C-alpha cells in the first residue's frame, strides 16, 4: 500500500534520498526505512599503529592486503582481515558483489548475459580468496555478519568490512573488548577504479495490500520510523545506538554528529549508487544485488560455489565456471 498520506509532521522529505528512492515507485513511497546502511571498514587503530601504517579515508585493495599481512598474528589468534564467507545472497554474495563492483565487474551485460566468466570477476574472487586464506580466521567459509562481529568484538580481527550499522556494536564497551580502539574508513577500491566496495540497503516497513487494519499498521510505521522514535531511543540507549541511515536530520543533530562513526557511515551511504553500481553500464538496479526476482536464488547458488572455494574444496576457476553456467541456465529459463 502507498504511504503517500503520512502527516506533514512525519517529514517525508527528511528521509535520506538514497533510501527514499529505493523504497518508492514513480515518486510514491511504499515503505518507510527503520534504518539504512552501507558498508565500510572497521579497523583496530592500535594494530594499525603497531604496523606503522595509517589508514587512508578511501584505501585501495592493495593497501588492505598490506595492512592485513602486517596485522596478522596467528599465534595469538589475531587475523588481519575478517570478511563474510557463509553462503547466501545476503551473506557472502552481498560482500563479494559489492567487492566485484570495485574491480569493475558486473553480474550481467546490457543484454542480460551473465558476466561471471570475465577477467574482472576472476580478479575479484582470486583476490578475495588470497586475502582470506592468508590473513583471515580459520573456518571463514562458515562466517557471516554475526560470526565476524563476535570475532571483532573479541579482538581477533584487525579489519572488518561490513555493514555500517555494526559500528555501534564494535564501539560499545558493554559488548566489545576493543571499543576504544576502532577506526573507520570507506570500503576499498581497486587502484585506478573509482568505485568503492560498499553496498546500500534499507530495513523498511511496508503494508501488504488487503491488510485488515491498514490504518493501525500505518500509524505504527509512522511512529517507528519517526524523528520522535529516534529521540525516544536516544533518551534510553544513547545517541550511538539509535537506528541510523534513514533521516537527514539525524546527521545534522549535534548530539549525533560527534559519534565517531557517524560521518563515515553517511559518506558510505551517499557514495553508493544503485543505478550505476560498477564501471560498465548494467541493465539492473542495485549495488550488492540485481533487483530481479531470480537474483536471490541465483546468487545463493553462486554463493555456495564461492564458499566451497574458500573452504578449499575447489579452485576459483572452477567456482566461476560453475557460477557462470548456473546463472546462464537460470536466466535462460526465466526468459531473459
TrEMBL record:
GO cellular component terms listed in the entry, alphabetical order: periplasmic space
Cell location: Periplasm
Domain of life, source organism: Bacteria
Family classification: Belongs to the bacterial solute-binding protein 1 family.
Name of the protein: Sorbitol/mannitol transport system substrate-binding protein
Annotated source species: Jhaorihella thermophila
Amino acid at each position: 500500500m502507498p504511504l503517500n498520506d503520512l502527516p506533514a509532521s512525519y517529514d517525508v522529505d527528511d528521509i535520506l534520498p538514497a533510501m527514499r528512492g529505493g523504497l518508492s515507485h514513480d515518486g510514491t513511497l511504499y515503505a518507510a526505512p527503520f534504518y539504512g546502511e552501507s558498508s565500510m571498514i572497521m579497523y583496530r587503530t592500535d594494530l594499525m599503529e603497531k604496523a606503522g601504517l595509517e589508514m587512508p579515508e578511501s584505501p585501495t585493495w592493495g593497501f588492505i592486503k598490506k595492512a592485513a599481512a602486517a596485522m596478522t598474528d596467528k599465534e595469538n589468534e589475531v587475523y588481519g582481515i575478517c570478511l563474510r564467507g557463509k553462503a547466501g545472497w545476503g551473506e557472502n554474495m552481498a560482500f563479494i558483489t559489492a567487492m566485484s563492483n570495485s574491480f569493475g565487474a558486473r553480474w550481467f551485460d546490457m543484454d542480460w548475459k551473465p558476466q561471471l566468466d570475465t577477467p574482472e570477476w576472476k580478479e575479484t574472487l582470486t583476490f578475495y580468496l588470497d586475502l582470506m586464506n592468508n590473513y583471515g580466521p580459520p573456518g571463514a567459509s562458515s562466517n557471516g555478519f554475526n560470526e565476524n562481529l563476535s570475532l571483532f568484538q573479541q579482538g581477533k580481527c584487525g579489519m572488518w568490512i561490513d555493514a555500517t550499522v555494526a559500528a555501534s556494536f564494535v564501539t560499545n564497551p558493554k559488548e566489545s573488548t576493543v571499543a576504544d580502539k576502532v577506526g573507520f574508513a570507506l570500503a576499498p577500491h581497486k587502484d585506478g577504479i573509482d568505485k568503492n566496495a560498499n553496498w546500500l540497503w534499507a530495513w523498511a516497513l511496508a503494508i501488504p495490500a488487503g491488510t485488515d487494519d491498514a490504518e493501525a499498521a500505518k500509524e505504527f510505521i509512522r511512529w517507528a520510523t519517526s524523528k520522535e522514535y529516534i529521540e525516544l531511543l536516544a533518551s534510553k540507549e544513547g545517541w550511538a545506538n539509535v537506528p541510523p541511515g534513514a533521516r537527514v536530520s539525524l546527521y545534522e543533530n549535534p548530539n549525533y554528529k560527534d559519534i565517531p562513526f557517524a560521518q563515515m557511515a553517511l559518506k558510505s551511504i551517499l557514495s553508493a549508487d544503485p543505478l550505476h553500481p560498477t564501471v560498465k553500464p548494467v541493465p539492473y538496479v542495485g549495488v550488492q544485488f540485481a533487483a530481479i526476482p531470480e537474483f536471490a536464488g541465483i546468487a545463493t547458488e553462486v554463493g555456495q560455489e564461492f564458499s566451497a572455494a574458500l573452504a578449499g574444496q575447489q579452485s576459483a576457476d572452477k567456482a566461476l565456471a560453475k557460477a557462470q553456467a548456473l546463472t546462464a541456465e537460470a536466466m535462460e529459463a526465466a526468459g531473459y
